[in-house]
Amino acid sequence: MTRFAILLGGTLTVTARLVRQVEGARVIAADSGMGHAAALGVIPELWVGDFDSTDSVLARQYPDVPRQTHPEAKDATDGSLAVAEAILRGASQIVLVGGLGGQTDHMLGNVGMLLGLARKGYSCFASSGEEEAYPLLPGDCLLDVPQGTRLSIVPFTDLEGLGVQGVRWPLVNRSVALGSTLTLSNVVTGNVSLSLKAGHAIAIAVPAASR
């Protein structure tokens, strides 16, 4: 499994958990996301973007990192271009680092990108250090989050047959309508397993150690 960490320009809190999650990963930075490299102790193998949000100080810090420059007038975000490059380089696991902070439109776009990647068979999640987002599609999956983590399931469609185990308020074969807040703010009590028969959603975790 080839894991890539994509450094995005959203806000980031560097935690021991996040450092472990990116340890050993190949790294690509998207525009101002390069600003997270020093805090994480990584040197990206590629720097992608139109560089409209990269200041001259940051540019001078990394003169030896190869750049892939794109025009400002384009039909994709710098983050999605970085993800596409990771896939070309053989990524099977993708972590969007900084993908949950900053502008709301970009944050929601990143969450949508997770669902799109998962539908194509990639293992992926996003993290701001304080929050993590995991795509939830039909099937079964396990979440590696510590006890005491706050866990929410946010529907992006109507959900059928949702199961949530290892939490204070478990669910079995539950229907959840789009817009429902039923599945917000649960608490992890053990090993978390999720199952879904139809629909798609995002699991938002706030790991206990980050609060």
Sequence stretches where pLDDT stays below 50 over 5 or more residues: none
Instruction: Give the amount of beta strand, in percent.
Output: 35-45%
Biggest sheet statistics: 13 strands, mixed
Distance between the termini: 31 Å
Order of helices and strands: EHEHEHEHEHEEEEEEEE
Radius of gyration: 17 Å
- As a percent range, the share of helical residues equals 10-25%
Question: Tally the helices: what do you get?
Answer: 5
- What's the count of strands? 13
**Average residue pLDDT:** 93
Outline type: elongated
Q: Output the structural class.
A: alpha/beta
Description:
There is one protein chain. This protein has helices at 16-22, 37-40, 56-61, 78-88, 104-119; strands at 3-7, 26-30, 46-49, 67-69, 93-97, 123-127, 132-136, 139-143, 150-155, 159-167, 171-176, 186-196, 201-206. The longest helix is centred in the middle third of the chain and has 16 residues, at 104-119. By secondary structure, it is α/β, with parallel strands linked by helices. The chain contains five helices and 13 strands. Strands 1, 2, 3, 4, 5, 6, 7, 8, 9, 10, 11, 12 and 13 form a 13-stranded mixed sheet that branches.
Itemize the secondary structure elements and their pairings.
Elements: E1 3-7, H1 16-22, E2 26-30, H2 37-40, E3 46-49, H3 56-61, E4 67-69, H4 78-88, E5 93-97, H5 104-119, E6 123-127, E7 132-136, E8 139-143, E9 150-155, E10 159-167, E11 171-176, E12 186-196, E13 201-206
Parallel strand pairs: 1-2, 1-5, 2-3, 3-4, 5-6
Antiparallel strand pairs: 6-7, 7-13, 8-12, 9-12, 9-13, 10-11, 10-12
